[in-house]
Amino acid sequence: MAANIITLGRILLVFLVLFLFQAGFYLRLFATMLTIFIIYLDSLDGYVARKLGVASDFGALFDITGDRIVEHLYLIFYAAMGLISFWVPAIFVTRSFLVDTLRSVAYSREGKTPFGDKTMMKSSISQFLTASRFSRGVYGVSKVVTFVLLGIILALTQGYDEGVRWIQESWFSKLNILSTSLVWTMVIFNLIRGIPVLIDGRFYLFEKYLPRTLKSDN
Asked: Which of 51, 77, 120, 165 could pair with 112 as two cysteines, CB 3.0-4.6 Å apart?
């Protein structure tokens, strides 16, 4: 219960952050700091669930749902603000729907979960890419750095409009180049973590549950 409340809390906090990102310079800086806290909560909910001995299949799925909402809201907002390409949230949303559909089928049909002892992943390589602490940790760090940097750019841009000049204007182009590199690195890593789910999950859609009549027609 406590872990699910944390997950719900970080979802609600995102809406507050996106509201603050449209305010003044100092509120945008505060929103950037809240972004770090929100992504930290992503690791905290799982830790609390394990510590209290209340980890559950639903909790794991709800945690993933929270991740998706947080990621997508940030990316859609940053795209709307002109900081990143439209194709970034488009790729993330498409990947999420495909992966989460397969995970839902695996869970409803056989009780398979994305992670843990009942994982739907079949090989050690796919489990490492999708569920290992290293993989999830590196991906989490990439999100923190990317989302925070984009938030800083938003804040500094507003600061210049308000006469608050913390860095030289020439540094903006360098920050934008760095943020673009980080964003597309995150996109690539997101796809790398999603491909094993599509490969291992094809069994649930195309081999076992596809109607026999359709199979024979092919």
From this structure: 120
Q: Are 106 and 116 in contact (CB under 8 A)?
A: no
Please compute the mean of the pLDDT values over residues 148-173 and round it to a whole number.
85
pLDDT at position 2 over 50: yes
SS3 113: strand
Domain boundaries, the chain: 2-207
Give the span between the Cα atoms of 172 and 177, in whole angstroms: 9
The domain 2-207: what is its CATH number?
1.20.120
Distance CA 145, CA 118 (A): 32
78 touches 149 (CB < 8 A)? no
Q: Phi, psi at residue 118, to the nearest 5°?
A: -105, 30
pTM above 0.85, yes or no: no
> 16 near 10, Cβ under 8 Å?
no
Per-residue confidence at 168, pLDDT binned at 50, 70, 90?
A: confident
- The pLDDT, as a whole number, for residue 51 is 63
Give bridge partners of residue 113 from the DSSP assignment: 119
